[in-house]
Design a protein that fits this description.
By secondary structure, the chain is α/β, with parallel strands linked by helices. It has helices at 21-31, 33-48, 94-125, 129-154, 178-181, 210-225, 259-273, 291-300; strands at 54-58, 62-68, 80-84, 88-92, 161-162, 168-173, 189-193, 200-202, 234-237, 242-246, 278-283, 317-321. It folds into three domains: 9-126, MutS, DNA mismatch repair protein, Chain A, domain 3; 127-155; 156-300, 3-Layer(aba) Sandwich (Rossmann fold), CATH 3.40.50.300. It has eight helices and twelve strands.
Length: 340
């Protein structure tokens, strides 16, 4: 098989040249059509003196010789009209028809032979399928680990410290993707979540990096828990069982749900399944409603449904992205868990 075979066998081009002599012969005949057509076009144009003559191929009518309408009266008698266009006439000659049959036959035979060779190859591999799958899994794991190691070395990642104590502390954190596409240096950011400071409200102007900061935190946490080095100067990560995200704004027309309904449905799923060891990203909940209603919704999300308010009572590690007013203008006596 070739190094990068197509997804589907139906179009051919899977078996590498040199594997089967008969297949190579049929392919050579089919692939040589372009050279033959170029030579035929030059020959007929010079012989007949028709500067508009050209040879081409159409998926419906096959090969043809095309001549402009103004010169069509000069074609010889053995030119058989195949198609009439607005400004041109298309013809076929016995020589071209014979070659067309040969080429189309060669393409079909090449594809049929290639499919049979492909199936025979699979029959030979079938007894070794289990060993091949184990080898593929091992190579895939090695590929991931080697790439993570290369990225850690070349991009100056740090080794995270996984601890039993709940919380996340990141010093000099960077977004692993955004950092690579920026033309200017990425500005590193710290992050701190602890049992006494479980929630952050991230505010700032548009295009200020709020969403990038949130996603950066989730990516660093995920990379740490899969055993990778992370893009930061120093990282301490406590237990994490899940990462929940409520990001983006889109309705669900097929189900008859508005953008707000989609947000609330996904938010309810988070509230019912998040634990004290879950990291939650909430990107501007309640957009499309008033500032006060957005703030009330975010305030209510600090507690599990049905539980009374008791100070800093977030049950997980939520990061809220908010606009400049909804996050900072809290009610009197309401102490924020953290504002960034």
């Amino acid at each position: 098989m070739i190094e990068s075979p197509p997804v589907l066998i139906r179009d051919g081009g899977v078996i590498a040249p040199g594997y089967n002599a008969e297949l190579d012969e049929w392919r050579a005949l089919a692939d040589g059509a372009t050279d033959y057509l170029d030579r035929l076009e030059i020959r007929e144009r010079e012989k007949l003196g028709l500067d508009t003559l050209k040879v081409g191929f159409n998926g419906v009518h096959g090969y043809y010789i095309q001549v402009s309408r103004g010169q069509s009266h000069q074609v010889p008698m053995h030119y058989v009209r195949r198609q009439t266009l607005k400004n041109a006439e298309r013809y076929i000659i016995p020589e071209l028809k014979e070659y067309e049959d040969k080429v189309l036959t060669s393409k079909g035979k090449a594809l049929s032979l290639e499919k049979s060779l492909y199936e025979a190859l699979f029959d030979q591999l079938l007894p070794h399928l289990e060993a091949l799958q184990l080898s593929a899994a091992a190579l895939a794991e090695l590929d991931v680990l080697s790439n993570l190691a290369e990225r850690a070395w070349s991009l100056n990642y740090c080794r995270p410290v996984l601890q039993d104590k709940a919380g996340i502390k990141i010093s000099g954190g960077r977004h692993p993707v955004v950092e690579q596409v920026l033309k200017e240096p990425f500005i590193a950011n710290p992050l701190s979540l602890a049992p006494q400071r479980r929630m952050l409200i991230i505010t700032g102007p548009n295009m200020g990096g709020k969403s990038t900061y949130m996603r950066q935190a989730a990516l660093i946490a995920l990379m740490a828990w899969i055993g990778s080095f992370v893009p930061a100067d120093e990282t301490l990560i406590g237990p994490l069982d899940r990462i929940f995200t409520r990001v983006g704004a889109a309705d669900d027309l097929a189900s008859g749900r508005s953008t707000f309904m989609v947000e609330m449905t996904e938010t309810a799923n988070i509230l019912h399944n998040a634990t004290e060891n879950s990291l939650v990203l909430m990107d501007e909940i309640g957009r499309g409603t008033s500032t006060l209603r957005r703030f009330i919704a975010r305030l209510g999300l600090r507690r599990k449904p049905g539980e009374p308010h008791q100070g800093d009572d977030a049950v997980c590690h939520p990061l809220f992205r908010a606009d400049n007013t909804a996050g900072k203008n809290g009610r009197r006596g309401q102490r924020p868990s953290g504002c960034r």
